[in-house]
Design a protein that fits this description.
This protein is of the alpha/beta class. Helices cover about 40% and strands about 15% of the residues.
Length: about 525
């Protein structure tokens, strides 16, 4: 039985906590007396407590984040009620700047602020010896050269079933005031040879999905190129020497759970894509690489307000290059509610990005994370934030409460109808048929229409979604034959023929690929 349990509540089972594995890898002589236990925020608190106590631990440490704060509070309160002698340690971004906003303050023994990799072993050793430990311990930002890399802590089950998170560096050189990374003092890079050796071990064990959490993966081109080159060298090839193409989501739905191709996710600086990196990117097969690119806003005043530097012309050039390359999925971020932004200026940013045709535009709502410099804008811009996680903007000088509610619905519907990629032709038809040359305005009007028609943002069955898209197209004056044709083509591409609403059933039946197709319309 482990004396020390390192635990967290992930948002979903497919997530594997890199933070816990970093802690265990650096436990030194206590590593074999420790164990990792992961749960999800949907697991009942009492059941989590029961499973933790089944190991009879003396110490339990929790990683606390914005998505699991309230759930962790409930688990800890149960633990303290039924096992008061178990010592509780908490750490993570959500408690690194105080615990006055939580119920954890009175229930835990030690609060670690900052990165806990190199302090966790000493804390546990002292607690196991029965000696006192300060309630507040600063982990700070330790030198990465002193850390043991965590990748051998991933189990074979993790490699088979979960997303594997890795990091070649920590920190961020930028000062975007809404982000906790703005507090970093530069970037700390792990020894590249050691890191790539660890990646090689993961590959040899069968890992094929690598999600890099580096804030600025392409900050140092030589490092970026070596990592990209590493994966190209190890990429599985077919008999003729060509790189194996990853399975699409539809192929996996049809029973092919995976092949040997890699899937790589990187967070990229949008205005930095030199020729050496481009040359390597162009060699990857379609569907193998995903870039998360934080645009946030194209509005110059907003960039000044939040201390965000970005060469917009070079960013658009890079986005256009990626679009024309056609093999990389680009996930581009925009934020509604930044200081100095208005609805009109946000829509201009949205339109500018939409016309670059990234694979996905993630529309987020501004959040006030504890410890970030964004706090300085609260009074001048009359900002009011939700006191509960995720601390999203409720209202501001430029976004009154009713407008912000409208924008949040837009973000939700955008995820459901646009980013799902279920309706690409139909969405294009909505944008092109609206009485505006602004894609953002057209889609905001679609959002308003959806709310008027349904009064709901969630729990829409897929046939209902198709019905709503068709109704909206007809409300815009689109000919029924054109609307039907677009939706049926989307059915066929997505393999969603069985989800065709009743009034499109005949057209969908006629369009199915062949009588024995897997996605034939249900009787």
């Amino acid at each position: 039985m482990p004396d020390i349990i390192l635990a967290t509540l992930n948002a979903r089972y497919s997530h594997a906590s890199l933070g816990l594995r970093c802690l265990r890898a650096n436990m030194g002589d206590l590593r074999d007396r420790s164990a990792i236990r992961e749960f999800t925020i949907n697991d009942p608190a009492a059941r989590i407590a029961e499973r933790l106590l089944a190991d009879s631990p003396r110490i339990i440490g929790f990683g606390v984040y914005i998505w699991n704060l309230r759930e962790t509070e409930r688990v800890v309160s149960i633990l303290k009620a039924v096992a008061p002698d178990v010592r509780i340690i908490i750490g993570g971004p959500e408690v690194s700047f105080g615990t006055d906003h939580t119920r954890l303050g009175s229930d835990v023994d030690v609060v670690v602020s900052g990165e806990g990799d190199l302090v966790i072993a000493d804390i546990c050793r002292t607690l196991l010896a029965g000696e006192p430990v300060p309630r507040a311990v600063k982990g700070g930002k330790p030198a990465v050269a002193a850390m043991v890399l965590p990748y051998d802590e991933y189990t074979d089950e993790d490699l088979r079933q979960r997303i594997i998170y890795v990091e070649a560096s920590r920190g961020c050189p930028f000062t975007c005031e809404f982000c906790l990374s703005s507090l970093d003092d530069g970037v700390r890079t792990f020894a590249l040879d050691e890191f790539l050796a660890a990646m090689s071990r993961l590959v040899d064990r069968g890992c094929r999905t690598f999600k890099f959490v580096d804030r600025t993966f392409n900050l140092k081109p030589t490092t970026c190129e070596r990592i990209l080159g590493f994966f190209l060298e190890r990429w599985p090839r077919s008999a003729d020497g060509t790189l194996v193409v990853p399975l699409s989501g539809r192929q996996m739905d049809q029973g092919n759970t995976r092949n040997d191709a890699f899937f790589l996710h990187f967070e990229m600086i949008p205005d930095r894509l030199p020729e050496g990196i481009r040359t390597l990117i162009a060699q990857f097969p379609a569907g193998a690489v995903q870039f998360e690119i934080g645009i946030q806003s194209f509005t110059p005043e907003v960039g000044v307000n939040i201390s965000r530097r970005m060469d917009t012309a070079r960013t658009e050039t890079n986005l256009a290059w990626l679009r024309d390359l056609g093999t990389v999925h680009v996930h581009a971020d925009l934020i509604i509610g930044l200081p100095g932004e208005t609805l009109s200026s946000f829509l201009l940013s949205y339109d500018r990005l939409y016309r670059q045709r990234p694979g996905e535009i993630q529309v987020g709502i501004l959040k006030l994370l504890r410890g970030t410099p964004l706090i300085r804008h609260v009074e001048p811009f009359a900002m009011a934030f939700n006191p509960e996680p995720p601390y999203d903007l409720l209202a501001s000088r430029d976004f009154p409460f009713a407008l912000m509610q409208r924008c949040k619905r837009f973000a939700r519907y955008h995820e459901l109808f646009v980013n799902s990629d279920r309706f690409p032709r139909a969405i294009d038809l909505i944008v092109n048929s609206a009485l505006t040359d602004s894609p953002g305005t057209a889609l905001l009007a679609f959002s308003d229409w959806l709310w008027d028609q349904t009064g709901q943002e969630h729990s829409m069955a897929l046939p209902r979604q198709y019905d709503l898209v068709l109704d909206h197209l007809l409300s815009l004056g689109v000919e029924e034959s054109a609307a039907t044709s677009a939706l049926v083509a989307d059915f066929v591409d997505q393999g969603h023929l069985r989800h065709a609403p009743a009034r499109l059933r005949a057209a969908a039946e006629a369009a199915r690929p062949h009588p024995g197709a897997r996605h034939a319309v249900a009787p």
